[in-house]
Amino acid sequence: MAQPPALYRLYRRLTPLLLPLAWRSVSRRLGDHGVSALRAGERLGHASLPRPSGRLIWFHAASVGESLSVLQLITVMGKRLPDTEFLITSGTATSAELVAKRLPPRSRHQFAPLDAPAPVRRFLDHWRPAAALFVESELWPLMIVETSDRGVPLALVNARLSQKSVESWRKWPKTSRFIFNRFALLLAPNRQTADDLIALGAPADRVGLSVNLKATSAPPPVDADLVADLRKTIGKRPIWLASSTHPGEEEIVLAAYHRLLASHPDLLLILAPRHPERGDEVAGLITKAGHSTARRSTGERVTPDTQVYLADTLGETGSWYSLAPFAFLGATLADKGGHNPIEPAQFGVPLIVGPSRANNRAAFEALSLAGGLAEVSDAATLASAVARWLDDPAALKQAQAGARRLVRDQDSALQDIAARLCAALHLEPGDA
Which residues are CB-contacts of 406 (< 8 A; sequence separation ≥ 6)? Predict the structure, then answer.
């Protein structure tokens, strides 16, 4: 293995000095979300769970979307490797809470160690992974190098590199080559990302294309009792869902809803902000807009007079998609790059989206080609798109069919990814 370049050596020297500041920030955020001191200590490499016996494979993701995208892959690999245990790490309280509800068999979650020598060393000493898989853009230099130096084979799955990050890596070619050469396999969801990885120093024979993992992830859980109760309560009223909205988008959604009431006076809007802790803020926006509301977080029930149902809870997205015939997807009118469109498509829910879709561009393009996407730019065009699907059942049915087409053949795609990973990381059954 090549000698560490100067930039990496500098990074390694600086991280211990910056660790107290980083720890103060992350521990405060975790504490604000009710995470115990014991669990928060995982970010310093102090495990809160014992290591299981036998072979253990480590998956590291960033936050909610990345963490959830690997759960189905772990399930498939778990069936292929019945003697293997799995560890999932991430950095946010929300991801920990959601992953805990959906852990595959023989899996557990921990918070990832901060990228400094002591936390990473403690983490690796305890968990001793047989292989490590990093998800999307989680490229922490120390974590990657320290793991590789212990002889642990590495893979990068669902690789995602923004243009900004590519340009940053290109300024330090020796460092990028030093890091990307550590991976035994790098799977990219599109040709551009694959080419970028090779340009940054990844060996071309280790870079491959694969389906976007978010297109193969298991759908979020559904509370059948909640859905049945709401269907009974809502009756024949038309429903529109605005899902995973961000600041600035709720105002646009509510303005579009106001327009729609003229032609659809009994329309029920289910408004689900991306971050439920913004519930009070969003409730204030609804009140300011002059609409009656019921809040899920406080147990308020939908009545015939309820105009907006504020779904300000965590982990119930699957229930909202089960109820809605179509949805506006957030982070697309705000400049946030768009959330994963595959999740609603798994429920046959076509999407109305704004122009910001860089984070999941390939999936959005595939959904558009399948006929399950409508594009808007403001409150007026959003209201028009909603009205079209409310008023034209044939068009809506066609769009729903397009959404379902997008998520076909999930199992075969996952089986292919699992087979490639097992071969590259020397994880075939019986190798433990």
Answer: 215, 342, 345, 363, 366, 367, 370, 372
For residue 113, the one-letter residue type is: P
The model's pLDDT over 383-413, given as tens digits with 9 standing for 90+, comes to 999 999 999 999 999 999 999 988 876 667 8
Which fold would CATH assign to domain 6-209? Rossmann fold (3.40.50)
- Each as own residue / partner, the long-range contacts of residues 331-337 (CB below 8 Å, 24 or more positions apart, any chain) are 331/244, 331/246, 331/249, 331/274, 331/356, 331/359, 332/356, 332/357, 333/248, 333/249, 333/252, 333/376, 333/377, 333/378, 333/382, 334/245, 334/246, 334/247, 334/248, 334/249, 336/246
Q: How far is CA 100 from the centre of its chain?
A: 14
Residue spans of the domains in the chain: they are: 6-209, 224-406
Where do runs of H (alpha helix) occur along 150-217?
163-170, 173-180, 191-199
- Residue 116 in contact with residue 141, Cβ under 8 Å? no
Residue type present at position 121: R
Residue with token string 């297109």: 215
Task: Evaluate whether 6-209 and 224-406 have a shared fold.
Answer: yes
- Strand 351-353 and strand 327-329: pairing? parallel
Helix (H) or strand (E) holding 204: none
Tokens of 323: 């109820």
- The percentage of the chain sitting over the pLDDT mark of 90, rounded to a whole number, equals 84
- The answer to whether 390 and 238 have CB atoms below 8 angstroms apart is yes
Q: Tell me which long-range contacts 379-384 makes (C-beta under 8 A, separation of at least 24).
A: 379/252, 379/253, 379/255, 379/256, 379/259, 380/256, 380/259, 382/252, 382/253, 382/256, 382/328, 382/333, 382/352, 383/256, 383/257, 383/259, 383/260
Q: Which residues are catalytic?
A: 66
Mean pLDDT of the chain: 94
Q: What digits encode the pLDDT tens for the residues 241-257?
A: 999 999 999 999 999 99
Q: How many residues does the chain have?
A: 432
How far apart, in whole angstroms, are the C-alpha atoms of residue 315 and residue 54?
A: 32
What tokens does 289 get? 């807009």
Cα gap 143→49, rounded to integer Å: 20
Please state the CATH superfamily assignment of the domain spanning residues 224-406 in this structure: Glycogen Phosphorylase B; (3.40.50.2000)
